[in-house]
Amino acid sequence: MKPPEALRLAKACLDDESLTEQSVSTRRVCSLWSGMGSIYELRVADRLHVAIKHVPVANPKATFGERRKAVAYQVEANFYEHAASQFPTLRLPQLYHMERPENSITLCLEWMSGPRYSSSSRVKDALTWLATLHGESWGGRADALVASCGLHAQGTYWHLDTRPEEHAQMPNRGWEGRLKRAARAIHDALQRDVMQCIVHGDVKEPNLLLDSNGVVTMCDFQYTGKGSPTQDLAYFFCSSVDTEEVDEEQLVRHYHQVLTQKIVDPSAIPSWDHLQLSMDLAYCDFCRFMSGWGYWGSVDDIQSRVKAVLNRLDNGKDLGSEEAYDAAIRRHFW
């Protein structure tokens, strides 16, 4: 970032025209996905410490994936501009300044200066954060936030409608072939789930931050939108939790307890059994994406769980069509 641009942004963040280039320091931290923009660190002595995310979003020659990502960055800007204030008890990075000309987005966000997030010691804190996001946007409030704040109608970065290439690349045989044919029914069942809320959509360890007081927060709201809360949970456990070191049931029960406290309408609180069924579907949904993209995280655990769900649906024998798996999902789930 050139010094005049850094100075201009620092002045905008602090509303101080007296700043000079000598008082502002910057460094490039990293490039964003597929080179679509950069993140910079900007400091003004002891007055300001921000992360600057700069993203070009207009490219007439963009690929399908690049167009998907450009929309996602628009959603992230919408979240900070319109939705963040709707979660007053949720710790979020402070937005100091935003610019949204036609061809780019620039976000100037609070730099989280706390120690590095450690999944083994802070999983409950992350789940408390998620339960707060989910509970405070439960039910019809999720639809209202999508409509008024410009969030995704379907949250998460792996949902089936945006991942046709990965679905096509799944094996056609074996348990993954069965999962491939069940994918649409699983996706639709998660959309029918009575548990609906705003999901973060990319809950992984690199997106979990600690502020100077050690409080957990989250960044990267590019795939935030409506969904079943278990989609966030399944992805988090797959991508960022060593399930051999923790008791997953105990952690999910902690999440359920906090969620129960955050949902305003007692009649809308999900039962533990329903949450578990939804978790089964969410694991299958994310495994479907990994099957076409590539596996990482707690692979053995998720594959074992998915195989068990498939066996429940088809008794270990391929049902042969998407329609047959849809009927089986409706019999065994909803």
From TrEMBL:
<protein>
    <recommendedName>
        <fullName>Protein kinase domain-containing protein</fullName>
    </recommendedName>
</protein>
<dbReference type="InterPro" id="IPR002575">
    <property type="entry name" value="Aminoglycoside_PTrfase"/>
</dbReference>
<dbReference type="InterPro" id="IPR008271">
    <property type="entry name" value="Ser/Thr_kinase_AS"/>
</dbReference>
<dbReference type="GO" id="GO:0004672">
    <property type="term" value="F:protein kinase activity"/>
</dbReference>
<dbReference type="Pfam" id="PF01636">
    <property type="entry name" value="APH"/>
</dbReference>
<dbReference type="GO" id="GO:0005524">
    <property type="term" value="F:ATP binding"/>
</dbReference>
<dbReference type="InterPro" id="IPR011009">
    <property type="entry name" value="Kinase-like_dom_sf"/>
</dbReference>
<feature type="domain" description="Protein kinase">
    <location>
        <begin position="28"/>
        <end position="334"/>
    </location>
</feature>
<dbReference type="InterPro" id="IPR052961">
    <property type="entry name" value="Oxido-Kinase-like_Enzymes"/>
</dbReference>
<dbReference type="InterPro" id="IPR000719">
    <property type="entry name" value="Prot_kinase_dom"/>
</dbReference>
